[in-house]
Amino acid sequence: MLSALTLHNGDTADAQKVPSLSPAEFRQSIVKAVANGARIASLFGYPLAPGTIRLVVVLADGMSGSLAVLSRDAQDSYLALMHDCPQADPFEREVSEQYGLQPEGHPAPNSLRNTAAAQFPKALGEEVHEVAVGPVHAGIIEPGHFRFLAHGEEVLNLEIALGYQHRGVERALVGAPDKRTIHYMEMLCGDSSIGHATAYAQAVEALSLCRVPPRAEALRAIALELERLANHTGDLGALAGDIAYLPTASYCGRLRGDFLNMTALLCGNRFGRNLVRPGGVRFDLDKERASRLLKGLEAATRDVTQSVSLLWNTPSVLARFEGVGGVSRAMAETLGMVGPAARASGLERDVRFEFPAGFYRYAQIPVCTWHTGDVFSRAYLRWLEIQRSLTFVRERLMTLPTGDVRVPCENPRPGQITVSLVEGWRGGICHVAITDEGGRFLRYKVVDPSFHNWKGLALAMRGGQISDFPLINKSFNLSYAGHDL
Amino acid sequence: MWDVVIARLKQGNRTVSYPKGEPALPEMYRGLPVIDAARCPSGCRECVDACPTQAIKTDGQGLKVDLGRCLFCTDCADACPEKAFTYSREFRMAACKKEDLIVVIPAEAGTQSNGLGPAFRRGDVTLAKVQALDAKMLKLFGRSLKLRQVSAGGCNGCEADVNVLNTIVYDLGRFGIQFVASPRHADGLLITGPVTENMKSALLETYAAVPAPKIVIAVGACAISGGPYIDHPEVHNGADSIVPVDLYIPGCPPHPLTILDGLLRLLDRI
């Protein structure tokens, strides 16, 4: 690394300390870091002065647990990173769309959130056809457009065009925090309210030098794992439903609700809204509710184990899951994928382990991986994570630290930069905040884990059959709202 | 094979007894906001100013809470210096007209608010906020309602709680309500999300593809008013700026029982 500001998860530093590099140095640093095993956690722009955009990159190195922050300034265009560093692709398309900065040499700078401008590759030949799905999809699910280029039954290419959920959150965050900010964070991606709210709270706490009491950190971790449990259980049920294996589909559908109700036991809302706040958590967990939570957890553990075990013991289920929608380890690494989708391709990538913050500094959850990279792998990995999370929540409930659950959090300090990472249930969430001279956000960049993974889904479909798409899509279960903001 | 049978026996029957039995709501469930107007200091605007979506209004004659904008967060309760704000366990909050979502709390102590009735007893109190469909529509949809869900910018919270209605816990199918894959097969739309500009034409086309007569249900604060995205240029402030809406179900997200209650009242099943 030529020069960089090095931070750890939840650290803050003087924004002036971010080195401003020459175009060549900026590019070299990123390519070199990624070649050495780091990944791009965030790459974004913000207006520095009229006509000048500052590009900032956050390179996350899991081996050392450090985050390297670099920047460069650009006017109209810059040499695209995509060729040497494919995981920069969605970020470059975003910068181009948000600030008009053209990535020179980018092979296909397609729109990211501008649905009207989406372009789709064509193929010529006999029996080549296109199948368009969406934005409105057959089930109860968020909108997105999938354009399959198929030759007979075989999918040559899948182009995913998103942006239908774009609500303008990042634009609204300039000048924040204000009274809507925490609500934006909780609603960015509605099934990851705890994940994003925790990332935001961590960022604000870093900026205002607020130390969160350990009891609050434990409660946040419990809530985050319950969120993971609810979604993983729901996903396994949905995967079973997609292959018409009704026993597990029915039981997991109910069990997902049980986990949501456990989250509601913490804060009154099934999605964990209004629980995490800068300074701690809004609601404490008294002994009586803690013991009810523990009982509920024990019942759910038995039922989930029984329900999910049916899947692994049924050959017809395995026949549908195995060998479908494969993503190789190399591909996952090239794309900078995160979360269960990456771990199911063998990557040991988990923010709780690599960049521990909050209670994960004191209590570790072993990182789960599986190696086959197919639908089975992504399903089985969820089961492994369910088991780990159940153990973790039980341990936390039985050893809750005493003390306050919330302390006052002052206003963010001026001229600072902070990076806040949380392992949401889909993968690493990254929030970067830069404050101005008044302590208000000059720029607040949100990267939902889905942002890294959509390309993985598109490539997993290549060579597959269109009829396998619902299954492969569900095995990823990425967020449209989290991508579109 | 036996393990499947044993699993079925052990997993048991999990369908809730509602509407026959009492609803099971979380202990700290935040339902209809209740304000003890007698405790409001004169000229105080703390809750009005704290609300992130300007759901609370005051005209000097008392407070009005617009459930269509309410996120059921706790910002108002936290801001109130007199602890006059609480959330009740009243989950029946759906309404057919948007103006009926505005709950009026008079300023004088002792006067009743026109909020939805406090009693959980059914049968003796008719909640007039949801009018059942007219006779002709009930004949068509009363026992078989097919809905097409459209997420027009929803965060996935409302979508998840609508999905949950299809699970065995709430088992929407037992009421004849079903979600279908195509608007051509549907009797109406169930819309979530503030209606992003990028989804406007898809929503209009989906609505046009539903054969008449049709109904539209708006679920969640976003679909009713725009929710936290009110006045964002990237969204329209709710579904009824794009299509006519027949039923509004407030919440963020509404508890599945709130959605279920609204649907069943619309179909005159409660």
List keywords for this structure.
heterodimer, A: 485 residues, alpha+beta, Beta Polymerase, domain 2, Cytochrome-c3 Hydrogenase, chain B, B: 270 residues, Rossmann fold, 10 strands
Would you give an account of this structure?
The complex is a heterodimer of chains A (485) and B (270). Chain A has 485 residues and is an alpha+beta fold. Chain A has 2 domains: 5-104, NADH:ubiquinone oxidoreductase Nqo5 subunit (Beta Polymerase, domain 2); 169-484, Cytochrome-c3 Hydrogenase, chain B (Orthogonal Bundle), CATH 1.10.645.10. Chain A is 41% helix and 19% strand. In chain A, the strands form 5 sheets. In chain A, strands 1-5-4-3 form a 4-stranded antiparallel sheet. In chain A, strands 2-13-14-15 form a 4-stranded antiparallel sheet. In chain A, strand 4 and strand 5 (66-74) form a beta hairpin. In chain A, helix 8 packs antiparallel against helix 13 and helix 13 (375-398) packs parallel to helix 15 (469-476). Chain B is of the alpha/beta class and 270 residues long. Chain B has a domain at 135-266: 3-Layer(aba) Sandwich (Rossmann fold), CATH 3.40.50.12280. Chain B is 23% helix and 16% strand. The radius of gyration of chain B is 19 Å and the shape is globular. The model of chain B is unreliable at 108-127 (pLDDT under 50). Chains A and B meet through helix 4, helix 7 and helix 8 of A and helix 1, strand 6 and helix 5 of B.
Annotate the secondary structure layout.
The complex is a heterodimer of chains A (485) and B (270).
Chain A: E1 5-7, E2 12-14, H1 23-35, E3 39-49, E4 52-61, E5 66-74, E6 77-79, H2 89-99, E7 102-104, E8 128-133, E9 145-151, E10 154-161, H3 169-173, H4 181-187, H5 193-207, H6 214-242, H7 246-267, E11 276-277, E12 280-281, H8 287-312, H9 315-321, H10 329-335, H11 339-343, H12 351-354, H13 375-398, E13 416-424, E14 427-435, E15 441-447, H14 450-460, H15 469-476, H16 480-484
Parallel strand pairs in A: 6-7
Antiparallel strand pairs in A: 1-5, 2-13, 3-4, 4-5, 8-9, 9-10, 11-12, 13-14, 14-15
Chain B: H1 2-11, E1 33-35, H2 46-50, E2 56-58, E3 62-66, H3 75-79, E4 85-87, E5 102-106, H4 135-141, E6 145-151, H5 157-165, E7 177-179, E8 188-192, H6 200-209, E9 215-219, H7 221-225, E10 247-249, H8 256-266
Helix pairs in contact in B: 5-8
